[in-house]
Amino acid sequence: MRVAFLGLGRMGVAMSRHVLIAGHDLVVWNRTPGKADELIAAGATEAKTPGEAADGADAVVLVLFGPDSVREVLPQVVRQGLLVIDSTTIGPDAAHEFGRLCTEAGARYVDAPVAGSVGPATDGTLGVLAGAAEEDWPDAEPLLQLWGDPARVRRVGPVGAGSALKLVVNQGIGVLAAGLGEALKLSSELGLDRRLVLDVLGMGAYSWTLNQKRSMVEASDYSGTQFSADLLAKDLDLAVSAARDAELEVTRAALAAVRKTLDAGHSGEDYAAVIGHLADEGEPNSH
């Protein structure tokens, strides 16, 4: 196959490499130049525009920041017969919008956000939550399995279902991060030792988050970004917007906490910064 990858952030670079490993032709494009050097050295071709990347491709994969980015790029590439795999976290309303755009152009659209960050993307073991028409799934699934664990690549429903489920997944990440930060803040107020608290919380409800983020929190170093606080804020905002009649008060509070973290200068850093910022906010020294 000839596959075009549009968007070479941390996830896009890691995911697209598997196209080359599988022996397919890979064409890449990124809004900011200079992200494709390693891929080019491995055999990829870099295009100057999204349209150039999609020209002659059997499938186009979008790994962009959010729905506005897709809204800008997709009309430049969509055409008759093209398979569009959208792995951007965009929410169900945008997925339906983009699905209609593709259908009107005679293309096929699959919203396929991933569960996991840079490590699983590099290993090819991501989970994939796909919304696809039944007739499009046989063509989409083998492509998605290039960067996803076959046991975790699943069609969860029609177009829009994958994006909806991804918001639910990331809502949990945001709430856990904010809750853990406040749990550590409470422990400081109560005079408890930070290391002891982390040991105990790691045996309970916060174990999943601490297994991934404890080293960052203890070092107060969030530069090794796997999933940025900026992306988490965007996804929580999408979740609140998608809920319509539901208030989602806890999710709104988590979103406010993430935004406060970004305002404190942690843009671009891993979302573990949310935990650390809430834990040590107002403290003269971190623990």
Write the layout of secondary structure elements.
Layout: E1 2-6, H1 10-21, E2 25-29, H2 37-41, E3 45-46, H3 50-54, E4 59-62, H4 67-73, E5 83-86, H5 92-104, E6 108-111, E7 114-115, H6 118-123, E8 126-131, H7 137-144, E9 148-157, H8 161-189, H9 194-201, H10 207-219, H11 229-242, H12 249-266, H13 272-280
Parallel strand pairs: 1-2, 1-4, 2-3, 4-5, 5-6, 8-9
Antiparallel strand pairs: 7-8
Helix pairs in contact: 8-11, 8-12, 8-13, 10-13, 11-12, 12-13
Question: Brief overview, please?
Answer:
By secondary structure, the protein is an alpha/beta fold. The protein has helices spanning 10-21, 37-41, 50-54, 67-73, 92-104, 118-123, 137-144, 161-189, 194-201, 207-219, 229-242, 249-266, 272-280, and strands at residues 2-6, 25-29, 45-46, 59-62, 83-86, 108-111, 114-115, 126-131, 148-157.
| Biggest sheet character | 6 strands, parallel
Q: Whole-number radius of gyration?
A: 20 Å
Instruction: Describe the strand arrangement of the main beta sheet, using strand numbers.
Output: 3-2-1-4-5-6
Distance between the termini: 52 Å
Give the total of beta strands.
9
Instruction: Give the low-pLDDT segments.
Output: none
Q: CATH homologous superfamily name of the largest domain?
A: NAD(P)-binding Rossmann-like Domain
| Average pLDDT taken over every residue | 96
Q: How many structural units, i.e. domains?
A: 2
* CATH architecture identity of the largest domain: 3-Layer(aba) Sandwich
The fraction of residues assigned to DSSP E strands is 5-15%
| Secondary structure tally, helices | 13
- Here the CATH topology of the largest domain equals Rossmann fold
Can you write the helix and strand succession as a string? EHEHEHEHEHEEHEHEHHHHHH
